[in-house]
Amino acid sequence: MLSYVLSRSFCQVVAEVTRPTIGSVLRTFTTSSPKCGGTSNNASVVTYSQLKTMLSNRNIQLFDVRNPDEYQAGRIPDAVNIPLGNLEESLKLSPESFEQKYEVKAPGKDDDNIVFHCRTGKRSATALDIAGQLGFSRARHYEGGYSEWAELEGK
């Protein structure tokens, strides 16, 4: 959390010094991502061991953003399949509609156990951006994806 605050403050100072227009300052304060200059935020990444712990503690809302055929071919236990193309629409559903459609509790914008994954981490990074734009600021993604999971699980 401290790194988020520090990076956000740094971005604000840089934006104010380099582009002192009202629009650029406003964008700095309203963006949901703490990224500045394209740097990645390690706080948004879940490692294999973290994922294993979250799964064993049953403290995770794991969303697989691959296509249904990929999901059917192999999946991480307890993952709910929401293809990337449907993610934004799905996250905008009311909690009741989400639960009816996916048969799991709807994620909350303040939940810190939301994790997206795909095959290799590219689509889940996009999913993380989509979720962040919708206010799910504490969501994360499993960068290794199903490829790493299957390799380390011996599947």
TrEMBL record:
Residues in Rhodanese domain copies: 56-154
Domain of life: Eukaryota
Annotated Pfam families: Rhodanese
Protein name (Swiss-Prot/TrEMBL): Thiosulfate:glutathione sulfurtransferase-like
Organism: Seriola lalandi dorsalis
